[in-house]
Design goal:
Two copies of one chain form a homodimer.
Chain A (H helix, E strand, L loop, with lengths): L13 H21 L6 H8 L3 H7 L3 H19 L10 H18 L8 H7 L4 H27 L9 H22 L3 H15 L14
Helix pairs in contact in A: 1-2, 1-4, 4-7, 5-9, 6-7, 7-8, 8-9
């Protein structure tokens, strides 16, 4: 079956879309539990009670299914951080979002890590299309931050030389590193320290009376 | 066989130690390529030409072997960053070490990610002993940084309220996040931004005429 004939999520009947979503959700759970290499299509079929022909009706191969898992994880991540992630266009909004992610991690003690970041180690070297999907997912996540930071720059809260895209990427690195260390140490402390550093980094671009304090790199 | 009877690396003949090291090295390579779940003891036996009884002579189970893989990765990481990692007790030394890790990542374009960090996503939720081994490995790596930063504090280059252990953990989070994003994006840029942020964060504790500039958190 060519990719043209395979129905995308948007071209399915309600029942088909539900089956497809159920397969992706089960695969996501298995991947979180067993890793990508440890999750076979047979596992997914067993978990969802679907046949091989049903599975291949929706997904060309395991790689295509894993890409959908990545998309699902992104959707979960974005949803879990709302409304704060959509309101990072002020100092108070940024602080609220940071408090939100730290509080979530405090609640889990870092178990599971980032639903996206924790897939990178296993996926990035095994599937270039999955790595690409991860990169796009991070970029979409970061776009909330860069949009908010651009608004702050336009409002005069950040200086004109602040680069919202690079700042957003830097914040994402701090977040991912903090979550990875939190997952390893079973403590929210590394994330808390990392996001505080990231906020301090953004504050170095604060415009106004304090601008003179900005240290040169 | 009880753990008491199983020979540790220090109690082996030269030949035994070589065989054990060869098994660990092969397992490390397989894990990097196939992930932990995707690497079976059968794979390790096939790659090293060892029998099941030989393998179990050295390692109680897969978990014990994976812990040795983590230790080996740590040794590689530390060795690859010398001599700079051992000389992070001055501003110039810190900058040299940061330049070193960024240059290494520029050379690989992030492929493979951090040999330790890239294992966290798959290992942390599947083996508590492996997660613990990873946490200890990061702590050992960080100890180079915290020792250097403590020297800088004792020398009066950092203010008395600088906490070397927390600063080292924060730098490690920046490094891990930068490497994870670099691996995903196939670019050293995220790591470069992250370590610059980390250096800036340490500089906020610089002692001397500039101390008055330190922003409050």
């Amino acid at each position: 079956m060519s990719s043209k004939e395979r129905p995308g999520a948007g071209r399915l009947t309600t029942r088909g879309a539900a089956t497809r979503a159920r397969i992706v959700a089960a695969a996501a759970l298995l991947v979180r539990r067993q890793g990508v290499a440890g999750t076979s299509l047979d596992d997914v079929m067993a978990a969802t009670g679907t046949s091989k022909s049903q599975l291949y009706h929706y997904f060309a191969n395991k790689d295509a299914l894993i890409r959908e898992v990545v998309k699902t994880q992104l959707a979960h991540v974005i949803a879990a951080q709302q409304p704060d992630l959509g309101e990072v266009s002020s100092w108070e909004g940024l602080q609220r979002w940071c408090d939100h992610v730290v509080a979530m991690t405090r609640a889990t003690q870092g178990v599971g890590g980032c639903p996206l970041g924790s897939l990178v180690g296993e996926l990035a070297e095994h599937s270039d299309s999955a790595r690409h999907e991860l990169a796009q997912s991070f970029a979409e996540w970061q776009s909330y931050l860069s949009t908010g930071l651009a608004t702050m720059r336009d409002n005069g809260e950040l200086s004109a030389d602040a680069d919202p895209a690079e700042l957003a990427l830097t914040v994402m690195s701090a977040l991912q590193g903090g979550l990875l260390m939190a997952q390893t140490m079973r403590s929210a402390r590394p994330l808390e320290l990392a996001v505080n550093m990231a906020l301090e980094h953004i504050r170095a671009y604060r415009r106004g009376p304090k601008q003179a304090q900005r240290r040169q790199p």
